[in-house]
Design a protein that fits this description.
- The complex is a heterodimer of chains A (186) and B (161).
- Chain A has 186 residues and is of the alpha/beta class.
- Chain A has 2 domains: 1-30; 32-177, Glutaredoxin.
- Chain A contains 5 helices and 7 strands; from the N terminus they run H-E-E-E-H-E-H-E-H-E-E-H.
- In chain A, the strands form 2 sheets. A 5-stranded mixed sheet of chain A has the order 5-4-3-6-7. Chain A has a two-stranded antiparallel ribbon with strand order 1-2.
- In chain A, a hairpin with a 7-residue loop joins strand 1 (45-47) and strand 2.
- The relative contact order of chain A is 0.18.
- By secondary structure, chain B is mainly alpha-helical.
- Chain B has helices at residues 2-20, 37-49, 66-80, 85-96, 111-140, 148-160.
- Chain B is elongated, with a radius of gyration of 33 Å.
- Classes of the chains: A alpha/beta (186), B mainly alpha (161).
- The interface between A and B is medium-sized, with 27 and 21 residues.
Chain lengths: 186, 161
């Protein structure tokens, strides 16, 4: 083949590779990296869904490794995630705290009553202002919090059984052991 | 009668995806109003520069997403409290990262974004200049140097005519 045709062909080939890679990775594009990783959790003190007389204070997150899960009864993909959370809390012993985001109190209680309650407690964030502090943009979202109350990992979208086994549990275990931390994005 | 029932059931089934589109409930909120025209202008400018995280190709002004509405209200609230545009922008970046800005700052993670187009332009200009020079050299040398054999052939052709 003539040399003069080679250059455009190579450039075209590289462009195709670039676009194909872009297409394949496109599903992760929505995953906005959180600036909160490595920082302390937002400070809050809100009544809880189970009993509005009681509160959920962000101080409680210190001294243990826990998950904070943002959920809502109107959130469709939370349904798929809920049984994974139930399993994680009951069978894997994970401590999961909830933030009930922009929900109706009756609906939220109904949800917990009918689907099981994997949460230690759930803050009732009626106006979604706490959600903004956590940088929430797509419910459900799940954060992993270390003993110092710092955010170590953020998962956007429903946690699947695979995510739980492959990402969440290894991260939580590594934080508990205090040795090498494994909380990277896959 | 039984068929009728099945049909209705089927119809309901088809509607399910429509019913499943869900969002937070609640009465529509009152519109955002400003007393101070300067604050209103700041608000307009900010809401155009901030990206809606839900529908990522829209800014806060354009987007109808629930979160965009919450963020608009939050921006308006902060401006009314007397915060300036930088403070509001910082508030948003602390929560959502540089991604929330349509006009991101130049730093190590964004240099490709800012520098990329210029690099491409320089490469383009370089290739173009090289091409033009090569063409020029070719046009200067085209008919002049025929080999002896070629000259002979040319003569033959002209004679035969």
């Amino acid at each position: 083949m003539k040399k003069q045709f080679m250059t455009p062909l190579i450039v075209f080939g590289l462009l195709v590779v670039l676009l194909v890679v872009g297409l394949i990775k496109a599903k992760y594009v929505r995953d906005v990296p959180s600036p909160l990783i490595g920082k302390p959790t937002p400070v809050f003190n809100l009544p809880i869904v189970e009993d509005l007389q009681k509160n959920f204070n962000s101080e409680e997150l210190k001294g243990q490794v826990s998950l904070v899960n943002i959920w809502a009864s109107w959130c469709v993909s939370c349904r798929a995630e809920h049984q994974v959370l139930n399993y994680a809390a009951q069978k894997k012993g994970l401590k999961i705290y909830g933030i009930n985001y922009k929900d109706d109190l009756v609906d939220a209680r109904q949800w917990l009553a009918s689907r099981g309650n994997p949460y230690v407690k759930s803050a009732f964030d009626k106006e979604g202002l706490l959600g903004i502090d956590w940088g929430v943009y797509g419910v459900p979202e799940t954060f992993i919090i270390d003993q110092q109350g710092h955010i170590r990992y953020k998962h956007t979208g429903p946690v699947s059984a695979g995510d739980l086994e492959n990402i969440i549990i290894p991260c939580v275990e590594s934080l508990k052991s205090g040795k090498e931390v494994h909380c990277e994005k896959p | 009668m039984k068929n009728h029932k099945h049909f209705l059931l089927l119809l309901l089934f088809c509607l399910l995806p429509v019913l499943a589109i869900a969002g937070p409930k609640g009465a529509p909120k009152p519109p955002i109003v400003f007393d101070d025209p300067q604050v209103e202008q700041d608000y307009q400018e900010l809401a155009e520069e901030l990206r809606c995280l839900v529908c990522q190709n829209q800014n806060l002004i354009d987007s109808n997403a629930d979160l965009a509405d919450d963020l608009r209200r939050e921006v308006a609230k902060m401006l009314k409290q007397g915060k300036n545009k930088e403070q509001v922008t910082e508030f948003m970046v602390n929560r959502y990262g540089d991604f929330v800005l349509y006009n991101p700052p130049v730093k190590s993670t964004t240099w490709l974004l800012w520098g990329g187009p210029f690099v491409l332009m320089f490469v383009g200009v370089f290739v173009l200049l090289k091409k033009i020079r090569a063409n020029k050299r070719e046009s200067q040398t085209d008919s002049a140097d025929l080999s002896d054999k070629e000259k002979q052939k040319l003569q033959d052709i002209l004679k035969n005519q």
